[in-house]
From TrEMBL:
Higher taxonomy: Bacteria, Bacillati, Bacillota, Bacilli, Lactobacillales
UniProt keyword annotation of GTP-binding present: no
Primary gene name: ynbC
Cited InterPro entries: Calcineurin-like_PHP_lpxH (IPR024654), Metallo-depent_PP-like (IPR029052), MPP_YfcE (IPR041802), Phosphodiesterase_MJ0936/Vps29 (IPR000979)
Gene3D superfamilies for this protein: 3.60.21.10
PANTHER family named in the record: VACUOLAR SORTING PROTEIN VPS29
A molecular function (GO) term: metal ion binding
Family: Belongs to the metallophosphoesterase superfamily. YfcE family.
Source organism superkingdom: Bacteria
EC numbers on record: 3.1.4.-
Pfam families, alphabetized: Metallophos_2 (PF12850)
Organism for this UniProt entry: Pseudolactococcus insecticola
UniProt protein name: Phosphoesterase
Cofactor needs: a divalent metal cation
Length: 170
């Protein structure tokens, strides 16, 4: 099981609460950037985090490639790959890293779609949600033999209606 969050924008306690909930059960916990925290903060012990456009600590990486649950993930904030205008650059970067899953943030809105064989997943924002779903949220992903089971959760860790997906693995 993979936990992905993003765009906490200074809300450190939210990261702490999600980490505490899943640190013993998740294979990996990911933060897709715009934490506005220092890279040296001990909150990052046990979390894989990248640099967002609102992060100014150069000790964060712009991208990360992770392996967990027999999958390889490409992680980035998204602004460097033009996600405001489409996912093709993100998908190309994932292909380049031989990753079948790309996690990104920046848009503050949930997206879960398979494009050209790559699951592109935006977990929404745990602090400043935008768009149709005005709910602070993160995503939980279980990978089965055949499917990606994606569950968006609110900050009480409850499933958000209409944001539960089973997508066929490419
Ligand atoms: Mn942001």
């Amino acid at each position: 099981m993979i936990i992905v969050m993003s765009d906490s924008h200074g809300e450190r306690d939210v990261i702490k609460a999600i980490k505490a909930t899943y640190e013993t059960s998740a294979s990996v916990i990911i933060h897709c950037g715009d934490s506005e925290l220092p890279a040296s903060d001990d909150i990052w012990q046990g979390i894989s985090v990248v640099k967002g456009n609102c992060d100014f600590d150069d000790d964060f990486s712009e991208t990360a490639v992770l392996n967990a649950d027999n999958q390889r993930f490409f992680v980035t904030h998204g602004h460097l790959f033009g996600v405001n205008w489409g996912l093709s650059d993100l998908v190309a970067a994932a292909h380049q890293k031989a990753a079948k899953i790309a996690f990104f943030g920046h848009l503050h809105t949930p997206i879960a779609t398979v494009e050209d064989g790559v699951l592109c997943l935006n977990p929404g924002s745990v602090a400043q949600p935008r768009g149709q779903y005005n709910i602070k949220m993160y995503a939980k992903i279980d990978i089965t033999q055949t499917h990606y089971k994606i569950s968006y959760r609110d900050l009480q860790h409850q499933e958000i209606p209409n944001l539960q997906f089973e997508l066929l693995r490419a």
